[in-house]
Amino acid sequence: MQQLVLAAALLLADPSAGPTPLVSTAGTSYLTAVSIAADQPVKVSAVTGDYLYWQFPATAGQRPELAVDVALPAQGRTGDHAWTVEVFDGLRRRQACVGGEQSPVAETSATSVTLGCRLRQVRSWAEPWDGDPLPGTYYVRLSSTDLPEKDLGLPVEVSLKLTAPTGDTGADQGSLAAPLVPDNRPGKILTTPAPTVPAEPEEEYFAWVPDFSSRWIWTASGGVLAALAGLIGFSWTRRRRV
Amino acid sequence: MIHRKLSIVAAIGLIAVAVPGASPARADETTAEPPVVELVLDVSGSMKADDIDGETRMTVAKRAFNEVVDALPETTQLGIRVLGATYGGENKKQGCKDTQQIVAVGQVNRVAAKNAIATLKPTGFTPIGLALREAAKDLDGAGAARRIVLITDGEDTCTPPDPCDVARELAAQGTDLVVDTLGLAPDEKTRKQLVCISQATGGTYAAAQSEEELTDRIKQLVDRAALPPPVTPAEVKGAQDCATAPLLAAGVYTDRELIGEHRFYRVSVRDGDELRASASIALDRPLNRDYGVLIKAATVDGRELVRGVDAGSGRADVISAGLRWSGDEEPALAATSDICLIVSNSFASATAAGAPGMPVELSIGLVAASRTPDAPGLGSGFLLLLVLVIAGLIAGVLAGWLTRWWVAKWKEN
C-alpha cells in the first residue's frame, strides 16, 4: 500500500516517468541484483548495514551516471555514517567513478545523504588485459562502509536514478565479440574437455567499411585537395614549356 | 542460575516463497529453483517485556506476523518454527532442546498459520543454535536458495554451541543458506550475536523498535526472497596445485577458501575462444581492516598470463576480481594445454581464521574471442590533408614532366 502511494506520488512528480515502472526492490548479492533501466525510478526501503545490488545494461558510447539519495533515520544514530556507491562490470571488476560524490560521510545530524557516480564512456572494444568499461552488464552496490556498530539495522529509504547519455563514438575502433554479460548457468565439472563447436563467425559483407564518422570527411576532402594539387603541379610543368 | 531471561524464541519457519512470476531476466534452459524461506521466532520468556509502544514484545510480534501472513502472495509457501515455546522449567538441558516446527513447509495456509501463531506464549530458553540447525533441516531438499528469517529479542541462552559458529557451519554445508536476523528492541549482546549470524551466512541484520519497523522489515525480507537467484552455483573443490585441479566448464561455482589459501582450477580454452573468469569472496567473519583478492590465469607450468585483483578496507559483504584471456594471444598454448585459474586472498583475522573457509563464488565464461581492430582505414586531421596535398602536387609535377617527355619523343618520331 505504502509502495503504491509512493509510486503514485512519484508519477505525479515526474510525468516523463509514466511508462517505466517503479523498482521497489534491491538484490543482496551479485546473483540476485535487481535489473534497472536508464531513467527508471528506484525507491527501496532498507536498513543501515544492508548491501543493496542492482544491475543495468550499457552499450558502447554511453556514459552511465548514477544519482542516489538516502533518507537517513531520524532517531537512533550515534555517529557519522560513511556511505559508498560502487560500480562493477560484468566480470565484477571495479569501475572507477570519474564524477559524483562516491563516498560521502553523513554527519549525525544529517537527514539525508546524496551519492553519485559517473562512469567513463563505455568503449566498444578493449584489449583482454585492459580494465576499460565495455558493453555488457554493470552492477551497482550501495552500502554503508563505516558506521558505529550500534547504528546497524536502522530503517532508511533509498532512491536511485540511472541516466545513460551517449557520447561521441568516433574514436573507438573494433568491437567486442560478446558483451560482458555473466554466463549464469550452473557450473559443470568435466573429466575431458568439452567438445565445443567453435562458433562460426557471421559472414558480414562490408564489415570492413567503417561507420560514418568525421574521418570520412577528412579523407574524402583530402582526396579532393590532392587532386587539385595534382592539377596545379601538372599546370606548372606545362606553363614552363610555353 | 536460570534467570527470567526466558525469551520466547519462536522459530517460525516461513517456508518457500515461490513466486514464478518473478523470474530472472535470462531464461536459460536450466530454470532456477524457487527459494525456500524459514521463519524462526523466539518465544522465550523475555518476550513478556512490555517495552514496545507500551505492549509486550510477544503481542507486537504476533500482530506483525498476522499482518505479514495476510500480505504474503498466494504462491508463497510458508513454514514456521518456534523456540522456547513449551518448556517453562528451570532445567537448562531440557530447555535448550525446546524447538518445534508449528507450520510445515508448504504453500501458506493463512488460517492455520495464524492459529498457530495465536497459541504462542512466552515461555522458555533461547536455543538459537539448535533452532537454526533444525530450521536448516526443515528446509532440506526444499529448494536451492534457502532463507531463514530469525526473529529474537535476546541472545542465545544455551551457548555452547555459539549460534554464530552454527550459522557458519550450516552455510558451509552446501547450497545457499542465508540467515536474515531481526532484533526486537535488541541490547548490545543480542545485536552483536545477530550481526555475527547474518554476516556468517551472507544475510542481513535489522533492529525493530516498533511494530511498524518489524512489519516493514519482515515484508522486505519476504519480498527479497521472492526474487530467486538466476542460478544455483555448482559446488567444486579447488585443488592445491594445477595438475590435480578440477576441469571446469563455463558456469557458476561455489567453493570455500581458507585465509591465505590458494585454490587451483583448470579451464580448457581453445584458439578462438576468450576466457572470462571472476572470483568473489564473501567476508563472512570479523576481519582485519584491509584485504584483497587475486585471480590469476597461468599456464600449467606456472607462467602467468593475466591477473585480476581488487583490494578494499572496512565493511564489505564481498570482494571480487575478474579477468579476460583470449586464446588468440597464444594459439599454440591454447591448442595443447589447459589454462590454470588460481584464486587467492590476502585476508587476516584475529579471531576466526580456521575452517570452514570463506565462501568463494567463481564464474567462468567462454565466448568467441574479439578480433583486435585493424589500423583505421580512414584518416583525419590537417596533417593528413597536408600529406595528401604534397603527394598530389608531386604526382602532378611528375605527370607533367612525363607528359612533356612523352610528347617530345612522339614528335621526334
From TrEMBL, chain A:
It comes from the Bacteria. The chain crosses the membrane at residues 216-236. Residues 165-187 are annotated as: Disordered. Keywords: Membrane, Transmembrane, Transmembrane helix. This is Uncharacterized protein. It comes from Actinoplanes philippinensis.
Automatic annotation (TrEMBL), chain B:
Keywords: Membrane, Signal, Transmembrane, Transmembrane helix. The chain crosses the membrane at residues 381-402. InterPro entries: CLCR, VWF_A, vWFA_dom_sf. Residues 36-225 form the VWFA domain. SUPFAM superfamilies: vWA-like. It comes from the Bacteria. Residues 1-27 form the signal peptide. It holds the Pfam family VWA_2. This is Ca-activated chloride channel family protein.
